[in-house]
Amino acid sequence: MKNMQQLQSEGRSGLEDKHDGNVPRERDGVARVRLPNGAHRLAVTMETWDAIRSRRDVRSYTDQPIAPADLDRILESARRAPSSSNEQRWDFVVCTERRRLQDLAKVWRHGGHVATSAATIALVVPDAADAYTRESIQFDLGQAAMSIMLAAADLGIGSGHSVVEDQGRARRILGLPDDRFCALLIPLGYPADRPLHPIRRPNRRPFDEVVHRERW
Amino acid sequence: MKNMQQLQSEGRSGLEDKHDGNVPRERDGVARVRLPNGAHRLAVTMETWDAIRSRRDVRSYTDQPIAPADLDRILESARRAPSSSNEQRWDFVVCTERRRLQDLAKVWRHGGHVATSAATIALVVPDAADAYTRESIQFDLGQAAMSIMLAAADLGIGSGHSVVEDQGRARRILGLPDDRFCALLIPLGYPADRPLHPIRRPNRRPFDEVVHRERW
Predict the structure, then answer these.
(1) Nearest-neighbour CA in chain A from B175: distance (Å)
(2) A73-110 confidence digits (pLDDT tens)
(3) Which of A105, A139, B118, B213 lies at a CB distance of 3.0 to 4.6 Å from B138, suitable for a disulfide?
(4) Which residues of B touch A53 (CB under 8 A)?
(5) To 5 degrees, how large is the angle CA B108–CA A125–CA B47?
(6) What band does A4 get if pLDDT is binned at 50, 70 and 90?
């Protein structure tokens, strides 16, 4: 949790929590988020370790919208992700219009959850010719995707990867330039089934199988 | 920050914070971490949003070792990362022996910081033939890498990607099977220059350039 000195030394408009004396005080797990209209609201946030353990694939969302400041924080997390030689070979198209989300849901046969998401972020990258560059872009994009999903989980917002099969349709809906393609959609929304909460036994290979000490 | 009810309902041996009444109490930004010998220690942790803004490329480390429970938490974060169809096409080899780290530092001409890291995690993946699978593995690996780096940042531990050019040498040092290769090293350690702290103006393309609303 930030202390007040840190808060006062920060304050990036619209993206940072800011202490100006007449807005609600922060407390454990609650941060002030400034809205575009200058007002503040409180947002529930988590410790990193809780966010990491709480993130799960969420494909069913309530109809609660994501506050603009929260959505900007999620996008800012993507922007800050590291990339090879800091090349940042990515753009993020964020969609919230219901009609557009319904159209986007059609770019993959299993992408129905895009239609009911509160927002969907399209991850757009250049269409590189050589295999090395394509793989490097995908690695970087994985880092940005994880930043998005953890920043969302921190706010109690679920996410669920959605693949793009029909590039032509995605290109038309998003208005993409010819030299780019949409590598992935990340639909976001508050979980309809149960809130995010640290998962005790994740569905993963056992720790001692996947982790090797000093040598394989 | 967790409340005590949550703490009591969790408790995965060695990896989770656990409340058993006779260990120090948690407070803002401080979590109990259980050591392999059953004792507890306090670790400084951050809010997710702070960890995301604090992570930076760190290539110069103090000689402070990483506590085993902290290293396990970082590895557990990697294990929990999402992957395509939950395939988990990855293994993590964690190295802390100084001699081994010095050897590993030679697999890339710019990898000198591996030698002085407190620990280095080798990300090992299968050597797939087709381009689609290779790209998919790289995307997943980026997600795992980001989990590692944010879990580390949460504990005040810096990280700095290191490439693998000499696969033969990496294979010998790590004892890798023939059908795997080391895709990346992630050296970890406490920053020698300055502690991790939220970065106010990251060296990135401007927000309004990289983020598009509804359409490109």
Answers:
(1) 5
(2) 999 999 999 999 999 999 999 999 999 999 999 999 99
(3) A139
(4) 80
(5) 75
(6) very low
Distances (CA, A) of B120 to A211, B36, B110, B160: 12, 20, 15, 10
Contact B212 A1 (CB under 8 A): no
Mean pLDDT, each 10-residue run in order, chain B (216 residues): 31 35 45 62 80 97 96 98 98 98 97 98 96 97 98 97 97 97 98 95 97 98
pLDDT at B170: 98
8 Å CB contact of A48 and B150:
yes
Distances (CA, A) of B50 to A124, A209, B83: 26, 32, 25
- The answer to whether A55 touches A196, Cβ cutoff 8 Å, is yes
A74 strand-pairing partners: none
**One-letter amino acid of B61:** Y
What whole-number distance in Å separates Cα of residue B205 and Cα of residue B156?
Answer: 26
For residue A46, what pLDDT band results from cuts at 50, 70 and 90? confident
CB of B33 within 8 Å of a chain A CB? The answer is no
What pLDDT does residue B46 have?
84
Touching check for B91 and chain A: CB below 8 Å?
yes
Alpha carbon distance A216, A212 (integer Å): 5
Q: Does A79 touch chain B (CB under 8 A)?
A: yes
Checking phi first, is residue A85 left (phi over 0); if not, alpha (psi -120 to 50) or beta? Answer: left
Domain ranges of chain B: 1-45, 47-193
What is B47-193's CATH number, 3.40.50.720, 3.40.50.2300, 3.40.109.10, 3.40.309.10?
Answer: 3.40.109.10
Q: Does A194 touch chain B (CB under 8 A)?
A: no
